[in-house]
């Protein structure tokens, strides 16, 4: 009897450790498209930090992916997505498969850069739901883009993704990272680390619960 119990425990432990070893999938949304944007440096830096933590990362760059000004969100093409451009359907599938989101946002007029909200508006909230998100904001000034982060919170909340309490704000961003996203001070990895500790926790917990209990329909 006791042996059977130990055997069951061993199987459970092995299952738990193989789950822990499996990679979490993250989508990193880059929020700006401006010529000489600094956002790309921040996104590159965050991608490295995520990969170091064993995330499989996909960067959504509105410039590279050529998101048009919103004409038709993917879910407006109907349940079969009939006629939706293939690139948009592929992007939706990637978001659906993701466990966590990282939003890299500059601050434009104390708010969210339009390229970022335009990109997010292409997708239904249901594919972001029951998954966590982490906000990384920046500015050349001393406030680190925090006002944009505050404006992002209700937007992310409406999309159904839980924005973790920590926000990684990067003041004087041009002094913090070189063009390749290599940090120029010690605060960068520390700041990202605090944010990603929270993201990891929620992403793992929510993934496990999605897998065992599903989500409300
Ligand atoms: C339209 C526009 C509005 C801006 N508004 C703000 C602002 O409200 N607060 C701020 O700190 N910086 C503001 N800036 C400066 C940006 O923070 C800075 O240009 C930053 O590098 C933008 O990110 P990006 O380089 O990725 O585009 C603004 C820049 C633009 C182009």
What does this structure look like?
- By secondary structure, the chain is of the alpha/beta class.
- The chain has a single domain (23-70, 84-213), classed as Rossmann fold, CATH 3.40.50.
- The chain is 45% helix and 16% strand.
- It has seven helices and five strands; from the N terminus they run αβαβαβαβαβαα.
- It has helices spanning 2-21, 39-52, 86-97, 114-120, 146-159, 173-176, 187-213, and strands at 24-30, 55-60, 100-105, 132-138, 162-170.
- Residues 1-6 have low confidence and may be disordered.
- The structure holds flavin mononucleotide.
- Flavin mononucleotide binds at residues 32, 34, 37-39, 106-110, 139-141.
- Flavin mononucleotide (FMN) binds at residues 32, 34, 37-39, 106-110, 139-141.
Topology, element by element:
Layout: H1 2-21, E1 24-30, H2 39-52, E2 55-60, H3 86-97, E3 100-105, H4 114-120, E4 132-138, H5 146-159, E5 162-170, H6 173-176, H7 187-213
Parallel strand pairs: 1-2, 1-3, 3-4, 4-5
The structure holds flavin mononucleotide (FMN).
Structure summary:
This protein has 217 residues and is an alpha/beta fold. Helices cover 45% and strands 16% of the residues. It has a single domain (23-70, 84-213), classed as Flavodoxin domain (Rossmann fold), CATH 3.40.50.360.
């Amino acid at each position: 009897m006791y042996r059977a119990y130990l055997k069951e425990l061993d199987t459970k432990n092995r299952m738990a450790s193989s789950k822990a070893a499996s990679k979490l999938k993250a989508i990193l949304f880059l929020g700006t498209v401006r010529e000489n944007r600094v956002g790309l440096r921040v996104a590159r830096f965050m991608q490295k930090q995520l990969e170091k933590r064993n995330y499989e990362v996909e960067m959504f760059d509105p410039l590279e992916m050529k998101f048009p000004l919103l004409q038709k969100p993917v879910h407006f093409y109907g349940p079969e997505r009939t006629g939706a451009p293939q690139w948009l359907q592929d992007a939706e599938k990637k978001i659906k498969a993701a466990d966590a989101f990282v939003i890299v946002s500059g601050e434009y007029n104390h708010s969210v850069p339009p390229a970022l909200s335009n990109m997010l508006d292409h997708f239904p909230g249901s594919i972001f739901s029951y998954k966590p998100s982490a906000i990384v904001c920046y500015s050349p000034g001393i406030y680190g883009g925090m006002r944009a982060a505050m404006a992002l919170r209700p937007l992310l909340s409406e999309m159904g993704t839980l924005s973790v309490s920590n926000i990684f704000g990067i003041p004087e961003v041009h002094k913090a990272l070189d063009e390749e996203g290599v940090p120029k001070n010690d605060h960068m990895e520390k700041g990202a680390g605090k944010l990603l500790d929270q993201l990891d926790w929620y992403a793992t917990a929510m993934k496990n619960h999605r897998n065992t209990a599903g989500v409300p329909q």
